[in-house]
Structure prediction request, 409 residues.
Amino acid sequence: MKKEFMAVILGCDENTYGFARYLHNEYGVVPIALTTTLLEVCKNSRIIDIVVDPKLHDYDHFVETLCTLGKKLKKEYEKIFIVPCSDYYMEVCSKARDSFKDYENVFISYDELKEFNDKVSFYKICEKYDLPYPKTITVTPTDYKKKVKTIDFDYPVILKPNNSNSIEYLKASFDEKEKVYFIDSFEELVHKIEAVYESSYQGELLIQKFVRGDDTNMRVLNVYSDRSGKVKVMSLNQPILEEYHPATFGNYAAIISIEGIVPIMDKIKTFLEDIKFTGAANFDIKIDEPTGEYYLFEINPRPGRSSYVTTCGGASIQRAFVEDLVKDDLQEHIGNEREALWLNVPMVLVRKYVKNEKILKKVNLLKKQKEVFHTLKYKKDNSLKRRFIVCLQYARKIHYYPKYFIEKK
Prediction:
């Protein structure tokens, strides 16, 4: 008799571990994780079956590997599904979606995916659906010298690649490389642009108006649309601290789940259902501190690195995958059921670098209520070697935060 299901997770980061933790805790499933490199956050884990394959970045090999694995797993399991945990893996799944017939996923088309990952195209979508976004100028190696002189919004500004997770940018090598640059002056802007374009990266760069406010003004909206394109899960969360190391700049380090819904969620729901989007996505949003207006930064058409926060708040993306692709009975969870604090850093960093007293009071209350969760700290995967890995991760963050932290105003 076949077992009920198996998940194939693509990647090896905190998101991978969060999905594995949920599947293990709720169903006793030890999922398979395919990855080009074994990252430290998943080392010494007993809840993930990690398969390292350095050739996965080759498209044909990737497709063949997933198809072969799918045929093998279908002999043992009733249903199997894929969880892509990076832009590259999502891109390949979308491009080769007709090849993965053994899996239950319904991936969006490759043309749609390119529109989402390309921020210029995405901002055109925002205009069509009346979704507010920050004023943006696009530059290239041939026109940046002229365009930077036409900027009509004040410094500081944000500088970033059109897609910071593209293979072209990930492979580029240069000093002080970051995913996003926080620029204080015209001279610094020109210097950073030239540093980028002296590397192998020759794609578009975006210069964007800085939406005022610190990390606590950010919002991240995680959604899941079922196989028919109906939005069934929406989880709005408030990041209160971000990562500042150049390699992870902009990733969320601490998040509080927000109960209920806000108006921008209705607009995003309308947009996703109009285009019949399927699967998981997350939206980066920020509230301008003086005006209280929401601005949409980007959509990632895959589960976000911090998506385990949705399980903490009760509108779980992890649960949605199973209910939709295995149980065929995905219930609606529009808005979180409770407040919870998700951490990917030690609590000491939250108390040191979060300056908002109201937020700190909430942090202390959630700690008192035992509503604090660390993706990487899982009691059922708590061997000595595993505890050492997690402690090492957190010790490094305590070490580098003072060096890289930026006070945003």
Summary: Residues 228 and 278 are 7 Å apart (CA to CA). The chain has a mean pLDDT of 93. The chain has three domains: 3-108, 135-209, 215-404.
